[in-house]
Design brief:
Structural class of chain B: alpha/beta
Bound molecules: flavin-adenine dinucleotide, iron/sulfur cluster, FE2/S2 (inorganic) cluster
Helix content of chain B: 10-25%
Strand order of the largest sheet of chain A: 3-2-6-7-8-9-1-10
Shape of chain B: globular
Helix content of chain A: 25-40%
Strand order of the largest sheet of chain B: 10-9-8-7-11-12-15
Number of helices of chain A: 11
Number of domains of chain B: 2
CATH superfamily of the largest domain in chain B: Nucleotide-binding domain of ferredoxin-NADP reductase (FNR) module
Radius of gyration of chain A: 21 Å
Largest sheet of chain B: 7 strands, mixed
Number of helices of chain B: 7
Distance between the termini of chain A: 42 Å
Structural class of chain A: alpha+beta
Oligomer: heterodimer
CATH class of the largest domain in chain B: Alpha Beta
Largest sheet of chain A: 8 strands, mixed
Number of strands of chain A: 12
Chain lengths: 329, 278
């Protein structure tokens, strides 16, 4: 792997981002005074380097909280496919792995989601490694290497001496970008680094066992059903549609929804298959740890710890997974 | 279908047929796609139908898949969107995307007797399969076809005008039943599961296809199982809340199966392996 590895300085990265900003929206870790988040930045000085993890995941770049998907014009329907160019800078390995799971769900099922796919294809994704785990993170137990992910176009290892980063290009788009914006690339011998998780947190059970043998009610007793965990999770992707009449021209919007809300599955007959809060939490958990794994081959929890940090009721998905593991023994 | 599963096709309501007469709550909409486009589908599949500015919901195809110059959708009034649809007139525009979902296993059913049991509007999603089998090109592939159609009252049957035609066909029986006695009603009275008990069929050569209210499905399947029918010979079609129809919005799953793509058609053996969450 000697070829794609180069050393670039922070100044060169900033110069590259400043160039990219000319015809793309650059999303990067920045602070709004309260929280660090992936935000559109207009000035490279606003980008926050360092090891802190943004509060929310970058999923809204690809799957916005609300997006117009259809307009009804002159009596016919037209799709609103985004053609905007984006750069996502500074995505953490857990975010990159999560984004790849979302990509699988949206593009590798029976149907392709063109709204997601176009945004994904029009985005240059630059990842960056973490140095330390933050409170709540359990990436190592979820098979996520905090030091590296190849699910991006360019990956920057942790910041080294004299503000130099080891950069790996992982796609043609990444290679081409480096070649275009960085002069005199200094290659280095990338020895790679080993990632050996101590143990892996996974659920080795059937759906039947998960439904019948676990006392979900007491397990998630404190859950308030606020849905925060689903909004903040980098792999959660539930949505609903809403039609709006905008001055004689109707539009259809796609909005984030949450499996934690009772109305989410309410039938026209009044019947609700997931009536109780603990049944809804069970759905959230089983979807991540069993269903996505069965349907797309990967557990949809990267251990980013965001839901753990955000939950107002102290619900901790890692502790829950561990408890389930014990209960199923 | 175009390659964007969310982009609907424009269709014109060519004809509106009032089905039930008791509370006027079911109407069949005959739709023609703009530009003479056709939607190819198979029995069991469904569409997402919308009125621009109001919203969208899933509805089963209710017409013969081999005659798709137009498609029929039968709609029961239950809420916001269906209220608006019921107020539409012939010539009005709706939007349709699809087809979605799996299909009844038409080939696997070949060479067998078929027992249909439908309750109320539950006959709608079965009509594509019934009419498909009764087509001349297909009729010889299936043996005896028995239909047990149940409705609350004599005024609640849908597609009533077609029963005579179905009855006139070779090896085809149609049994009607209503919940309570009515003046002038000469056919059966009583719940379908009680009538099933009196019917005879070859358990190893019959497939049962059920659709109706959950309580009817429950009692009828119990009876069929008691009588010795195996679970994989009993088919039904499920309804769940749905938005996308393509397996992504997260609303319709039962365990790892998504009713919008893996269903809506399942046999009872398949349902038995799924968590009880529907
Ligand atoms: C595969 C499938 C096939 C169907 N086929 C038919 C059919 O052939 N004919 C027919 O009349 N009906 C059919 N339905 C049911 C039909 O989708 C609902 O009656 C319709 O969504 C009600 O919409 P509404 O806007 O009028 O009601 P609303 O005012 O939206 O809703 C009334 C209640 O229904 C719930 N609801 C809203 N949207 C949905 C939804 N998409 N699915 C279920 N519940 C919902 C709400 O929670 C609310 O409590 C089918 C459903 C499915 C899943
Ligand atoms: S687990 Fe926590 S964040 Fe999620 S819905 Fe329950 S209270 Fe809200
Ligand atoms: S479930 Fe929680 S820890 Fe796992 S990926 Fe989602 S937000 Fe991160
Ligand atoms: S309807 Fe959206 S996942 Fe099935």
């Amino acid at each position: 792997m000697a070829d794609p590895a180069v050393m670039i300085s922070k100044a060169e990265i900033l110069k590259m981002l400043a160039e990219l900003m000319k015809d793309a929206t650059v999303f990067a870790p920045a602070s709004n005074g309260k929280k660090l988040d992936y935000m559109p930045v207009r000035n490279v000085e606003d980008i926050v380097f360092g090891d802190d993890i943004p509060y929310k995941s970058p999923k809204e770049i690809f799957f916005p909280r609300t997006e117009k998907i259809i307009t009804f014009k002159d009596g016919d329907a037209e799709a609103e496919i985004s053609t905007e160019k984006y750069v996502l800078f500074g995505a953490r390995p857990c975010d990159l792995e999560a984004l790849d799971i979302m990509r699988k769900v949206f593009t590798e099922g029976r149907f392709k989601d063109p709204f997601f796919e176009e945004r994904y294809n029009n985005t240059l994704i630059i990842g960056v490694g973490c140095v330390d785990k933050k409170p709540g993170c359990f990436c190592d137990e979820r098979e996520t290497d905090m030091g590296y992910s190849d699910k991006c176009d360019l990956f920057l290892g942790a910041q080294g001496a004299e503000d130099y980063f080891q950069a790996l290009h992982l796609s043609e788009k990444g290679r081409e970008t480096l070649g275009r914006y960085i002069d005199g690339l200094r290659t280095f011998q990338n020895t790679g680094h080993e990632f050996k998780p101590a143990h892996t947190l996974s659920i080795d059970a059937t759906e039947e066992e998960l439904f019948d043998k676990i006392d979900w009610e007491s397990l998630v007793e404190t859950c308030q059903g606020c849905g925060m965990c689903t909004y903040i999770c980098p792999t959660c992707h539930c949505f609903g549609f809403k039609d709006v009449d905008e001055g004689g021209c109707a539009s259809r919007y796609r909005n984030w929804d949450s499996c934690m809300f009772p109305k989410f599955t309410l039938h026209a007959s009044g019947h609700n298959p997931r009536e109780e809060r603990h049944e809804r939490y069970r759905q959230r958990f089983a979807h991540k740890y069993l269903y996505v794994k069965k349907n797309f081959g990967a557990v949809a929890c990267t251990g980013c710890g965001r839901c753990v940090r955000a939950c107002p009721a102290g619900v901790n998905i890692k502790a829950i997974a561990e408890k389930i593991g014990e209960d199923l023994q | 279908m175009n390659d964007n599963p969310y982009l609907p096709l424009k269709a014109e309501i060519q004809e509106i047929i009032q089905e039930t007469t008791s509370d006027l709550d079911v109407k069949t909409y005959r739709l023609k796609f703009a530009g003479d486009r056709k939607m190819e589908f198979m029995p069991g599949q469904f569409v997402e139908l919308s009125v621009a500015g109001t919203g969208e919901a899933p509805f089963g195809f209710a017409s013969n898949p081999l005659r798709n110059d137009t498609i029929d959708i039968s709609i029961k009034r239950t809420g916001t969107l269906t209220d608006v649809i019921h107020a539409l007139k012939e010539g009005d525009t709706v939007f349709v995307r699809g087809p979605f979902g799996n299909t009844f296993p038409v080939e696997k059913l070949e060479g067998n007797d078929i027992l249909y049991i439908a309750g109320g509007i539950g006959l709608a999603p079965l009509r594509p399969l019934i009419t498909y089998m009764l087509e001349d090109v297909n009729r010889s592939k299936y043996k005896k076809i028995q239909m047990l159609i149940a409705a609350r009252s004599s005024k609640d049957f849908i597609y009533f005008r077609e029963y005579e035609e179905w009855r006139g066909m070779k090896d085809t029986e149609v049994t009607l039943t209503i919940d309570n006695e009515e003046e002038g009603w000469n056919e059966n009275v009583g719940f379908p599961h009680n009538l099933v008990a009196e019917m005879t069929f070859d358990m190893n050569k019959t497939y049962a296809v059920l659709c109706g209210p959950p309580i009817m499905i429950k009692f009828v399947s119990q009876k069929l199982i008691e009588m010795g029918m195996s679970l994989d010979r009993i088919y039904t079609t499920l309804e769940m809340r749905m938005t996308c129809g393509v397996g992504n919005c997260g609303k319709c799953n039962i365990g790892h199966k998504y009713v919008c793509v893996d269903g809506p058609v399942f046999n009872l053996a398949e349902l038995g392996e799924m968590p009880d969450e529907y």
